[in-house]
Design brief:
Elements (H helix, E strand, L loop, with lengths): L5 H8 L3 H8 L7 H13 L6 H7 L4 E6 L5 H16 L3 E6 L4 H14 L3 E5 L10 H11 L4 E3 L9 E5 L1 H15 L4 E4 L6 H16 L9 E2 L5 H11 L8 E4 L2 H13 L9 E6 L12 E4 L2 H16 L7 E4 L2 E3 L14
Parallel strand pairs: 1-2, 1-3, 3-4, 4-5, 5-11, 6-7, 6-8, 8-9, 9-10
Antiparallel strand pairs: 10-12
Length: about 350
């Protein structure tokens, strides 16, 4: 093998990268059996550690974290929790902002491979697509040959680990709550059905409309970017319809802000005329007036679990392939029983 790495040595020996590093630095905290196996494989391949491997053996332990767009509060909040959790276990996180650019995404993946990160976590972009891009799958499979790949989504054809909030249960919490308040006309704003997180929520939204015997109005689902500006435009379209919703579900807290502003600009009060509910429970939910009712995805636990799985995978400890975290509905002031809306 001409491109042998410390990861290849670890994989062939069936040990963690840390164990190979200890053998290379002649540390004593390795069993004789494991040391002999690792030394035999090193000799077999005439392995010489490169700069990245030497940094590992000297104590620098790196986890790569690829996020779709750090300007989005969800990604920013989760990245911080990952960084905190990794630091508590002696790891350094390299945060890579993909800027929602597929070319840059591919480039960052290759750079993390070159840095020889012990594991790579990807949040968003290609891993949130309902249909995986074959070229990106091929690239990840090449990287995954030596570096564990962890994601909050999925990537068909890749041997990945998944950690995420249960999006179906999140939507059920929202719909059950609105139904308990007596809402009959419920809209959903933000995201695209091509995105897995939105698609899973949308499927549950449609299922529960049927279960509650409520009318499924296609104009009540407005797709768009997950920003307050895009959600404002979506809400403008909804407010031009003959039938108006009594409640709107925002795909995230930032979208909720745009929805509330659009409603207020049309002379509607929240929650008197229109109830608004959301997902994520970022700090924005406590700044919006009225205070936003939203589903808490538990960022500290999500970040910690992502890092725990990444470290366990890097150390060949066989963590769970899929972990779904329970969402929690945080009830504040933005929802009430249905008001009486007139066409705007």
């Amino acid at each position: 093998m001409t491109d042998i790495t410390i990861y290849d040595i670890a994989k062939e020996a069936g040990v963690s990268i840390a164990t190979v590093s200890r053998v290379l630095t002649k540390k004593t905290c390795v069993s004789d059996e494991k040391r002999k196996i690792v030394e035999k494989i090193i000799k077999k391949h005439s392995y010489k550690p490169n700069a990245a491997a030497r940094s590992l053996s000297s104590g620098t332990r790196i986890i790569g974290l690829m996020v779709a767009d750090i300007r989005n509060l969800y990604y920013a909040t989760l990245a911080i929790e990952c960084e905190k959790a990794a630091g508590e276990q002696g790891y350094t996180v390299i945060i890579c902002n993909m800027l929602n650019d597929p070319v840059y995404e591919d480039d960052l993946l290759e750079k993390l491979y070159g840095q020889r990160a012990e594991a790579i976590i990807q949040i968003g972009r290609q891993t949130d697509l309902v249909i995986s891009d074959p070229s990106y799958v091929k690239h990840v499979k090449h990287v995954n040959r030596v570096i564990p790949f962890i994601t909050t989504g999925r990537l068909e054809g890749v041997d990945f680990f998944s950690v995420s909030t249960d999006h179906t249960k999140s939507m059920k919490l929202v719909m059950d709550y609105l139904n308990s308040l007596g809402h009959k006309e419920i809209a959903l704003v933000g995201g695209y059905k091509a995105w897995r997180t939105t698609y899973e929520k949308w499927v549950e939204y449609v299922r529960l409309l049927k279960l509650y015997k409520l009318k499924h109005r296609k104009e009540f689902f407005q797709e768009g970017e997950c920003t307050d500006t895009a959600a404002y435009a979506c809400m403008e379209r909804i407010l031009k319809a003959k039938t108006l919703p009594s409640a709107v579900i925002a795909i995230n807290d930032e979208c909720a802000l745009g929805i509330i502003l659009a409603a207020q600009d049309h002379g509607l009060s929240v929650p008197g005329d229109l109830s608004v509910i959301s997902f994520d429970n970022t700090y924005l939910a406590r700044l919006i007036r009225p205070l936003l009712t939203t589903v808490d995805c538990n960022f500290p636990l999500l970040g910690k679990t992502l890092i725990d799985v990444a470290i366990q995978a890097a150390q060949r400890k066989n963590p769970l392939r899929e972990t779904l975290l329970e969402p929690i509905l945080v009830v504040r002031d933005s929802c009430s029983r249905p008001g009486k809306l007139l066409p705007c």
